[in-house]
Amino acid sequence: MTTYEKMKMLSSIREDLLKVHIEVDLFHELYKKTNVQNTIILNDVYENGSKNIVGAKNKLITEVENFSSNHDMLKTIDVFKNFSNKVEEYIAEVGASKKNNALIDISMKLNELTTKIYEYIRKRDKKLIFSFILCIGEVYHGLESLRLFIDNLLQEVLDDSVRIDDGYSEITLSYTMTSNNLEDYFQYLETINIVYNNVCNIIGVNITDETQLKVIKIESGSWFEKLFGLEKVIELVTYIIKKVVDTIFRKFTMQGKIATLQQLQELINTDAELIGKYKEIGVNIEARKKDIELMHVMMVKSLQKMTQKTTGISINGIQAGIDKSIQEKYLRENKRLMIEDKK
């Protein structure tokens, strides 16, 4: 598994963990409300008298039934299952180890809680209430430290991957964003990876652990990423990104129109400087014309998608973007086009 793939999987797990936390927080409020009554019942504190026990049981049952009638518990089950499935996929890739015990433990507890909730929904058996109430407390306390644990894992992956030797160089990018969606951020990271891999294919570089694009630093809060790879590939990647991004932003600023895929493809296919760079490396443009144009389409399509939710991109400290006065118009137009593309 590559560094990029590990990071993407861990970040996806982290994003789903936030959804799990929201659901568990709701359940924990119920847990706190019912905890006193629950303790009385489950510890069999008979010295309080049978009336107290019956009353406590009824109060607990009422609280849970009110909660379940006002909350979509099937949605909760889906959130828990999605998280557990992603954890299982990650463990299957990297292997079970002591380092990953925290992930495995919380996944197992969530699976247990999911089963108990589902059984309660299916049977509406009041006896099942007590078992899933206790399970909520265990899961809640396990989640408290898990986010920090995943952040540490992400940092370890980054630390293990950073080694810049001769023949390698960096590219830094930052984005002016209108949302804090982690999925969007990793879509941008994936876009750069697509461009990098296609450039490797064009110039005849085999993609291996040594030659693949690697991450030095990412900051989802500031939408910043620093990446490195083979120097000759990074040079071409930087040139192509700048060319396409500049054209998209400039065309809208000057004409109020979104550059089409066909226009961007033509731009790259006929760019004399880019063709010259290919030839210097030894690429036979004439013999591989169709293949190269196909890879240009993949790069341009991905870069076009990358610019749909951002009004500015800084590439190695050089800013390209949309004028502030028309930023909202630009985002609206892109949103309209994205909706049309889905039809």
Provide structural commentary.
This protein is α+β, with helices and mostly antiparallel strands. The chain is built from 11 helices and 5 strands. A 5-stranded antiparallel sheet has the order 2-3-1-4-5. Helix 3 runs antiparallel to helix 4, helix 4 runs antiparallel to helix 5 and helix 6 runs antiparallel to helix 10. The longest helix is centred in the N-terminal third of the chain and has 40 residues. About 3% of the residues have low confidence.
SSE order and pairing:
Blueprint: H1 3-42, H2 50-70, H3 73-94, H4 101-123, H5 129-161, E1 168-177, H6 182-203, E2 214-219, E3 224-230, H7 231-255, H8 261-269, H9 272-281, H10 289-306, E4 310-315, E5 318-321, H11 327-342
Helix pairs in contact: 1-2, 1-3, 1-5, 3-4, 4-5, 6-7, 6-10, 8-10
| Mean of all residue-level pLDDT scores | 80
**Class by SSE composition:** alpha+beta
Number of strand elements: 5
Separation, N- and C-terminal Cα atoms: 35 Å
Morphology:
elongated
Strand content: 5-15%
Count of discrete alpha- or pi-helical segments spanning 4 or more residues:
11
Q: What series of H and E elements makes up the topology?
A: HHHHHEHEEHHHHEEH
Rg value: 27 Å
Low-confidence stretches: 42-50
Largest sheet: 5 strands, antiparallel
In which order are the strands of the major sheet placed? 2-3-1-4-5
Helical residues, percent = 55-70%
What descriptors fit this protein?
alpha+beta, 11 helices, elongated, 343 residues, five-stranded antiparallel beta sheet, 70% helix
Q: TL;DR of this structure?
A:
The protein has 343 residues and is an alpha+beta fold. It is 70% helix and 10% strand. β4 and β5 form a beta hairpin.
